[in-house]
Each structure stands twice: as C-alpha cells, then as structure tokens.
Amino acid sequence: MMNTEFSFIIVDDGELDRFLTRKFLELTYTGVSIRSFQDAQHVLDIIRMTPTGNNPAQTIILLDLQMPMMNGFQFVEEFEKLPPEVQKNYKVVVQTILTSKNDASDISAISAYKAVNSVIQKPLSREKLLSLIEQLKLEV
Amino acid sequence: MPDKIKILYVDDEPDNLIGFKASLRLHYKIFTAVNVPQALSTLDNNPDIRVVFCDQRMPDKTGVDFFEEIRTSHPLPVRILITAYTNVESIIDAINKGNIFRYLKKPWTETDLIAAIDEANKFYMANSMLSIKNEELQKAYNELNKFAHSVSHDIRGPLTGILGAINLAREMDDAEEMKEMMFLMEKSVKKLDAYVLSMHDYYSLQRGELKITEIDFNKIVDELKAIYDINAKINHIEFKVSVKQEEIFRNDAAPLTLIFNNLLSNAFKYQDKKSKTKSVEVSIEVKKNVATIYVKDTGIGILGSHVGEIFNLFYRSNSIEVGSGLGLYNVKSALLKLNGQIEVNSVLHQGTTFKVTIPSI
Fold first, then answer.
1. Which of B7, B85, B136, B203 has its Cβ near the most Cβ atoms within 10 Å?
2. Residues B187 and B331 in one domain
3. Residue of chain A nearest B149, judged by CA positions
4. Nearest-Cα residue of chain B relative to residue A16
5. B173 contact residues in A (CB cutoff 8 A)
6. Do B263 and B314 sit in the same domain of this protein?
7. Are strands A34-37 and A6-11 parallel, antiparallel or unpaired?
8. B188 chain-A contacts, CB cut-off 8 A
9. Domain A2-132 has CATH 3.40.50.2300
10. Is B239 in the same domain as B356?
C-alpha cells in the first residue's frame, strides 16, 4: 500500500548515515523506491530534471543539515525557488544531529521554512521513522 | 641597539624646548612643539611617541586642557604635566580626571626627567602588552567558538551514526548486512580517532616551543615511504620521491613532519577514483639555506573559488571525502612556526601541487 504513496530520497554526506536510513526504510517498507545521495546540489539537479505532473507518488526527501559544499539550509533555500507544481511532489524531512535544546536557533530557523515538513533528531530509530510516516500519511 | 624612545615636549617658550632637547637627546628621540596644533600634527605623524610632556601655562590652551583633548584623540602616549607654579587645584583635577600620569615642577632637573620618563615608559609598555594580550585572547576566544561549533558535527556526527547503527543492529538478522554495517561503523570510529589526533596536533602547535635540530630529509622521506607505500600499493597510486640535500638544514622537526603528513594524506585521500594513472610525487631540494618542497598529486583538484579558503580553520572544500577541516589549518600554523611559506596550484579533475619553502635556522 505504502509503495504507491511515497518514494524516498536520502541526502546525507555521511556514508554510515545513508546506509542506516536506507536500511531502516527497507526494514519498514519492502519494495519502496529509495535513492541516496551525498551531494545536495546533485539532488536539486535531479528534481529540476524530473518531469512534473504524471507523478502520483510523493517523494520524501530525508535531508541532513550539516554538509560541506551545499548544506541543508542552502538546499531548502534553493528548493523553495522551484515552481510550486514541482515542489508539491516532494516533502522535505530534516534529519539532524542538532538538538532543540542546544541548537534552538538553528532548529527553529530550519523549521520556519515552508518546504520543511518536519525535523527528526538523529540517531534514527524504527520508532521515529514509523511515527514520521504515520504523520505524513495523515497529511496526504 | 633598539630604537630610541620617542618623546614630545610642548611648551610656548622656545628656550625651554631647547634646554629640554639638549639634556635628553642623547638617550631619547625628542620632538618639540610650540603650540597645540603643532603638537597634534607631531602626534599624528609619529603614532609611536610614548611620552608627552606639556607646560601648563600656554597662551592658547592650558596643559591640562591639551591633555584632556589628546586623551581621546591620542590615547596611547603617557601624559606628564610640567608646571612652574604649584597650581595645586588644576593638578589635582587633572590627575583625578585621569588626564595625566604625573606632574613635574619647574625648574626640572635632568634626574627628575629621566626618572619620570622611565616610569612613564614602563606604564606605556604595560599598557601595550595588555592590548596585545587582549588581541591574543580575542583570537583564542574566536577559535574556541569555532571549536565548540565544530565539535557538534565532527564528534557528534560519527557518534550518532554509531548509535543509529546500534539501534538498527537490534532489528537486523542478516550476517552479511551486519558485516557491511560494521565496516561503516569502523570507518566512523576511525574518523573520530583521526579528528582527536588532529586536535592534538592543533594544540601542540599552538602551545609548543621550537626545538631546532639538524634535519636529514632523506630520513624523513624514508619514514614517509614506510607509511604511505602500503596505501599506494592498495590503491594503485604511484608514489615517487626525490631528495636533493647537500647542505645542513636546521629547523624544528615536529612541525615539519606534520606538514608532510597532512599534505601527503590529502594527496592520497583526494585521488580521482576513476582515474587510470594515479600518482603522488614528493620532491625536496635544499639550496642556499632554503628547503623547497613540492607535493604533487593527480587528484580531484580544488575549485578555484575554494583555494583561498582551504587553510582556514574548519573549512572543507569537498563532499566526496570529508576531512576534519583541521589538516591544512595545522599545516599553515606549522609553517608559521617554521617561518615558511606555502603556495597551492590546483586544476579541477587534474590535480593539486603544494609548494612549501622553509628556511634553515
């Protein structure tokens, strides 16, 4: 059932983090489409090149914040410049090691972007992933 | 011999100025001015004047008023008032407002003057030391801030990854997958370890003192070969070294080794994985008391717009292999210690050459 609703894009510069996110997703949903990237700019290019319209499945972008070259903030900034008909095919979920306790200003800054659906704090667990998906399903 | 201490004397009576200059010019560099505008322009042109004497009674302005004015416009020189009659009130007033350091009674004796200059100079030195220390502290605080910020990513990053892996391990059954994950966990732990080690380098460079020894570059190169030959073999990278040293070279070996290690580990790390012919080349030549070192790789290169920033603390230019952002900063600090220079020449997708020059001490 899940397969037609969502596909996933993982953007994280950490090799282990990409592996973990992918495995957690695979454990939770078999057969779902998952693509992972270490360079946020690359993902933007892919989004720009993906035709819009005939794309019923929403894509969840699981986005790391602190990355060299293009970081999560810059990614969201650029993402919000895309045409609305492109943006509506994606939901951005931020995954970060920042904590709302120690990095309150960064967390509230990233949450303030319209494109950002929610923020998860690393480390990832199956519970966190399940409750995220539940919440996203409700919004569809 | 160090430069003479610069002193300005302001007095409207030229005879006084001549007398003052005559008795002090052997030991100090004396500037004189007959009025306030002249005094101000002398101060403007000689910002390193340390002591200003001024006569209290002048036609256009009193000495106390003049000092009150330069206290804000030229705060560094130490101010000493010279007064013929004991106008106690104005002196007390000036001292209380902090306008003057002390006062001398006319007629002055040479001994009084020299003693006053001596005290004033000590005060001046203490003040300038304080401002230097202040700047150093400010710099240290800025770096500390950067550290605090970087620690969140560089230490917590791998740690949360490992925690996540432990979470995942509870759900995993497949032994092969588990092994794959262990491999990635190991990489994270190694990264943490490397980070802690480069932190240690950072601190030893900031705190350590110079230890000058004779340096045999052939020996250094042998040590480097022992470390990097394995890496070269595994990754099919040709590792070439050449040394031309026919004279004695002296400097501190520890920062020198640090420079080699950082430049070489970068040269090996940032190779283009798809490239067929990969090489790292080190050449060293010692000539006329200068060692010129080239570290050349056929790697991925550095974007032109990033070259200016690669030596900055916690700067990372690359997303494929992420470094600690400390390595090249440490290289720069080490070179500062050795009084050396570094130049970088890089072409994207072709490679990078670092040229290091270090003088013999």
1. B7
2. no
3. A103
4. B184
5. none
6. yes
7. parallel
8. 14, 16
9. yes
10. yes
In angstroms, the CA B128 to CA B124 distance is: 6
Q: Two tokens at A71?
A: 């970081």
In a shared domain, residues B223 and B357 = yes
pLDDT at residue B319, rounded to an integer: 52
Residues of B in contact with A122 (CB under 8 A): 160-161, 163-164
- Say if residues B256 and B205 touch (Cβ distance below 8 Å): no
> Pick the residue with more confidence: B80 or B207?
B80
Domain count, chain B: 3
CA-based nearest residue to B21, from B32, B34, B6 = B32
Does residue B138 fall inside a structural domain?
no
Residue B13 has pLDDT above 80, yes or no: yes
Distance CA B340, CA B268 (A): 23
Number of A–B residue contacts, CB under 8 Å: 74
Query: Residue B150's closest chain A neighbor by CA?
Result: A66
From chain B, pick out residues whose CB is under 8 angstroms from the CB of A102: 152
ipTM reported for the complex, 2 dp? 0.87
Q: Which two tokens stand for residue A7?
A: 């596909």
- Closest by Cβ to B161, choosing from A16, A67, A98: A16
Asked if residue B9 has pLDDT above 70, the reply is yes
Percent of chain B clearing pLDDT 90 (strictly above): 39
B157: distance to nearest CA of chain A, Å?
Answer: 7
State pLDDT tens for residues A73-125: 999 999 999 999 999 999 999 999 988 887 888 889 999 999 999 999 999 99
The CATH code of the domain that includes B109 is: 3.40.50.2300
B167 touches chain A (CB under 8 A): yes
- CATH for B312: 3.30.565.10
B324 and chain A in contact, CB less than 8 A: no
Q: Give pTM, 2 decimals.
A: 0.63
Reply yes or no on whether the pLDDT at B321 is more than 70.
no
Q: Are B224 and B353 in contact (CB under 8 A)?
A: no
Kindly state the tokens that stand for B343: 């130049």
Provide the domain limits for residue B286. 210-361
Structure tokens that stand for B91 in this block: 């002196």
Which chain B residues are Cβ-neighbours of A13 within 8 angstroms?
A: 319, 322
